[in-house]
Amino acid sequence: MSKKKVWIDTDLSVGMKRYHKEGYSDVDDGYAVLQLFKAETIEVTGISAVFGNTKIDDAYRLSLKMATEFAPYKIPVYKGAEKKIDLAEVKTNEAVEALAQVLRKEPQHILAIGPATNIGILILLYPELIKQIKEVVLVAGRRAGNDFFKVGKPTSHHAPDLNFDLDNDAFRILFENNIKVVLCPFEISNKVWITANDLEKLKTNNPGNIWLSEQSQPWLEQWVSSGEDGFNPFDVLASHYLIAPDDLITEELQAHLEIHPNDMLLDTSEYNYKQYLICDHTPGYKVIYCYNVVADYHQKLMQSLIKD
Ligand SMILES: [Ca+2]
């Protein structure tokens, strides 16, 4: 059986302190990347870094580290966009050019677990390659403008729909060009938890697992201090979809961009608005919306991470 060719576009920030406020950055991209490295049905054809959870130089450095130290075969790594698409001056980058070259050779599945910026630029610059994109699996979206991403118990803050918030236009470009889009939103990842016990289990003699487990510790403590028992490994739902789509429960919905009061203010302000990626049954752009996991999902996830 031939392997599924997957290109990873990531804003890896494992172990990083945040630049803009106190605390640590997300570790979830690390789980997604490691899971794909270990999947025997997948061939990772390249990794492109993108800004997002951290700055582009950090995402690139961490992508290089993971590919060099933990990948079971050689995977090239490229530096992508440092900021959202400037529609008035669309600029290519090393990552976009490398992905274009790979797509010219053969069709690819794309895991885009940061802002969709690199993919959006590629589509604008090389529309002839759209037919080579089998699907793009992204982490974004919600069902309604008042579905807030509540984090902490009791709710201490709303999490942003970060990937979408950082580059609304990039998502719009995907939709308007009829790319097959799969969304793994907060609604699904909020049903999956990684706990202290799981991090303990991850500390096998596998260097990637040990590193990820250790680097996840401060991130876990951050969630525990807000009243949760663990953290949601958001991006790993998207990588899991590429490996075993049947482990995720999906629904075909229609996506649209809508403007509503800004949910990043706990009591949504009357005078502060933002764009939302809404998925429902009213006419829009067709997407596969993943909203739940199978009953033994947690066990399947841990198995996929722990194996050598
Ligand atoms: Ca990410």
TrEMBL record:
Gene3D superfamilies: Ribonucleoside hydrolase-like. Residues 6-259 form the Inosine/uridine-preferring nucleoside hydrolase domain. Keywords: Glycosidase, Hydrolase. One of its GO terms (cellular component) is cytosol. GO terms for biological process: purine nucleoside catabolic process. It comes from the Bacteria. The keyword Hydrolase applies. SUPFAM superfamilies: Nucleoside hydrolase. GO terms for molecular function: purine nucleosidase activity. PANTHER family: INOSINE-URIDINE PREFERRING NUCLEOSIDE HYDROLASE, URIDINE NUCLEOSIDASE. This is Pyrimidine-specific ribonucleoside hydrolase. It comes from Leeuwenhoekiella aequorea.
